[in-house]
Amino acid sequence: MRHLLVLLAMILAGPALAADLPRGPIVILPQPASPSVCLTGRPIEIYLAPASTVNGILPAGMEVEVIDVPFSARADLWIRIKPPRHNQYYGWVYTRDLICH
């Protein structure tokens, strides 16, 4: 029972101590513009390899980064994509399914 009281006291004291710390200004950094960052125009299927097994579906409006650069947003090509600023690999998609700037 004593352990529960000590734990409860620590939990209740925690936020009070954290609230007393000085807070710095919140700074929102602009994201770097990259020609390889695109949006999914509609839900798109991700493939393990070009024209092979479907590995999943990404929702419309999701930001993705094209790994295979340079690429042509006008040509209908198979390209590999990943999340922007991360190393996780999604898979292969057609360029026709992306909206690139």
The quaternary organization reads as: single chain
Q: Hey, roughly how much beta strand do the residues contain? A: 25-35%
Tally of alpha and pi helices: 1
The overall pLDDT average reads 76
Summarize the helix and strand pattern as letters: HEEEEEEE
**Low-pLDDT regions:** none
Report Rg: 23 Å
Helix content: 10-25%
The geometry reads as: elongated
What is the CATH architecture term of the domain at 37-100? Roll
Major β-sheet annotation: 5 strands, antiparallel
Query: Structural class, please?
Result: alpha+beta
In the sheet with the most strands, the strands line up as 6-5-4-1-7
Keywords: Signal
Signal peptide: 1-18
Protein name: SH3b domain-containing protein
List the SSEs and their pairings:
Blueprint (H helix, E strand, L loop, with lengths): L1 H18 L17 E4 L3 E4 L6 E5 L4 E4 L11 E5 L8 E4 L3 E3 L1
Antiparallel strand pairs: 1-4, 1-7, 2-3, 4-5, 5-6
Q: Key features?
A:
7 strands, single chain, 101 residues, 29% strand, five-stranded antiparallel β-sheet, SH3 type barrels
Description of the molecule:
Helix content is 18%, strand content 29%. The protein is α+β, with helices and mostly antiparallel strands and 101 residues long. The protein has a domain at 37-100: SH3 type barrels (Roll). Strands 6-5-4-1-7 form a five-stranded antiparallel β-sheet, with no helix packed on it. Strands 2-3 form a two-stranded antiparallel sheet. The longest helix has 18 residues, at 2-19. The N and C termini lie far apart (62 Å). This is SH3b domain-containing protein.
